[in-house]
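Page 42, continued from yesterday. The earlier attempt failed because a stray header line got pasted into the input along with the sequence. Redoing it now with the clean sequence only.
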Amino acid sequence: MAPWSAFWERNLFVARVPMVREVLLNHFVRGAVSGVGLICLAAALGELAGIFAQRRDRGELGHDGGPGGSGGRPQGVE
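This time it went through. Structure tokens are written below.
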């Protein structure tokens, strides 16, 4: 969203360097930056889904990964 906001147009590089201004305000560059951002967002959501699935699987098996979740210790031993 940042490339399409007013913040993108009013940053230091756009204000002080005319060549950079032309590049950063180009719609193709804005689209490319937005596309890379969407790819990063999709990758992050995929990573989170994997982490949550792993935690859910551990919760079903117990803390140590074995059935019952006793941690390999006898019952009643803390």
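Notes: The chain has a mean pLDDT of 81.
Reminder to self: strip header lines before submitting.
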